[in-house]
Design brief:
This protein has 17 helices and twelve strands. With 478 residues, the protein is of the alpha+beta class. It is globular, with a radius of gyration of 28 Å.
């Protein structure tokens, strides 16, 4: 007698049952209700469809499939999903109309969000990290879109710049977002970002920003507000003369044994410079410059061969524009130099003596180790930018008007805020990536089973430890 060991289904019978992720929906509803966002958004649209239900649905979609607004309308416009958000079928343009009033009032909305955050949570400090980035903008109609320095390596696309403020470690919760044209640099954008959060910071709080936002006027504004700052600054000729040339590791303090970081501290009347030398950074920068030397030598060889053989220069060395007439006259030094001599000249031009060195400056008297640790922790805001771009995925923006742009960014900001609050409230998830949190929530699904009697049964599946931790305070689901 043969024993059956596997369950076999000869015929799959189609049915009307439907399954979809429910974990992200429950997480959005949990924080939306807890923070009282209904009051924040409800006052900006009182007619027509309920703005809060639409925003909850849009946030849930943002943390689930997150493609276009068109796809978002299709995702929400399913009977089972509409029931969850107490919505009726709507047209795609309804979602665009939701973005407009949000965008028109985005400054007020950010201020209200700050109010509820500081009322709800007793944050242990108000030290913040500040940083700025760019987002690609598709389309030519939006006035915010300008060509500028692209952090996304797409100089061919118009963009806008975003400023972000984040409560620093161990909190790591974003509390502010500013939006400017794509050609506004960080030093100018600083004013908007600082003004948005300045009144939320306790006296003596520290603002950490990178070299891009560092200029004299900005640091003076921070000091005049009775706050502290820590930032990086450019090394200059004076540093080479007084510090770098005479730097001796035996006279410096070992700050980080793992990366071979040594430091010196120099006090001035209003601020303190912290000069560091990193053996690890030195090796990486030297390797990079040696690769550059090899690349330049190969380019020179190609040009020299063209000269010797009376050939045109390779196309990449020419101006390839039919409207520009140019006569080339090239001469290389390779004819009179050996390969080692040529490379030594290139090394001398490329290697400056600043390799491995970097300098931090602050108006607070810190130890070298404190200054280094605090500045390193600023990378948490870079991770938020990465999450916004690649996990929350608010790029590239495809809206037409400024107000729609602001609205789309607010939705992305709120979605990221919820992820950050999950990590803040659950220390065991502190080092769990936003991507993995999203996946864990999406794995929790609900299947709506339609019975012959017409009744519906909801079956929750794929619980995992992470989703149970996150949703532990929700109403019981079985």
């Amino acid at each position: 007698m043969t024993q059956t060991t596997k369950l076999r289904t000869e015929v799959i019978i189609p049915n009307n049952n439907i399954s979809f992720p429910i974990g992200t929906v429950l997480a959005v509803q949990k924080y939306y209700q807890r923070l009282g966002f209904s009051k924040i958004f409800g006052k900006h649209k009182k007619r027509g469809r309920d703005i809060n239900s639409l925003i909850e649905a849009l946030l849930s979609y943002k943390l689930t499939e997150n493609q276009s607004i068109t796809k978002g309308a299709e995702w929400i416009n399913r009977d089972e999903v509409l029931d969850i958000f107490n919505l009726e079928y709507f047209e795609q343009r309804t979602l665009y109309r939701v973005l407009e009033p949000i965008g028109e009032n985005y400054e007020e909305i950010i201020a209200d969000v700050q109010d509820v955050l500081f009322d709800t949570f007793d944050f242990q400090h108000t030290d913040i990290n500040m940083d700025w980035t760019s987002f690609i903008l598709y389309g030519d109609k939006c006035p915010l879109g300008k060509y500028g320095y692209s952090r996304d390596h797409r100089p061919d696309k118009k963009q806008l710049t975003i400023g972000l403020s984040e409560l620093s470690s161990p909190i790591n919760v974003p509390i502010g977002m500013t939006v400017r044209e794509g050609n506004v640099n960080d030093q100018i954008h600083f004013n908007d970002t600082f003004n948005q959060v300045n009144h939320r910071l306790r006296k003596g709080s520290m603002i950490v920003l990178d070299r891009g936002g560092n200029r004299k006027e900005n640091l003076e504004r921070i000091e005049n507000s009775k706050l502290k700052f820590l930032t990086a600054r450019q090394l200059n000729k004076s540093d080479e003369t007084t510090w770098l040339k005479n730097f001796n590791k035996s006279e410096a303090e070992l700050v980080d044994e793992r990366y071979g970081v040594y430091g010196l501290k120099k006090k001035f009347p209003s601020r303190i410079n912290y000069l560091f030398f990193s053996e690890d950074l030195y090796e990486k920068q030297i390797e990079s410059k040696l690769r550059k030397v090899e690349r330049l030598f190969i380019e020179t060889e190609n040009i020299q061969q063209s000269i010797e053989n009376n050939r045109k220069l390779p196309k990449k060395y020419r101006i390839n524009n039919p409207l520009v007439e140019c006569e080339y006259s090239y001469q290389t030094k390779l004819a009179t130099l050996s390969e080692s001599e040529a490379k030594n000249i290139l090394k001398k031009a490329s290697i400056t003596g600043r390799e491995g060195f970097f300098c931090l400056v602050s108006n607070k008297n810190l130890t070298l180790q404190e200054a280094l640790v605090i500045y390193r922790q600023k990378d948490s805001i870079e991770k938020i930018f990465n999450s916004l771009k690649n996990e929350i995925e608010i790029k590239p923006l495809r809206c037409w008007s400024d107000m729609s742009i602001y609205g789309a960014l607010i939705i992305g900001f709120i979605a990221q805020l919820f992820i950050s609050l999950i990590r803040f409230e659950h220390p065991e998830l502190k080092h769990t990536s936003p991507k993995f949190i999203k996946i864990s929530l999406m794995n929790l699904t609900v299947t709506v089973e339609y019975k012959k009697s017409g009744a519906k049964r909801h079956i929750f599946s794929n619980f995992n430890p992470l989703s149970q931790v996150i949703l532990g305070q929700n109403q019981a689901i079985t």
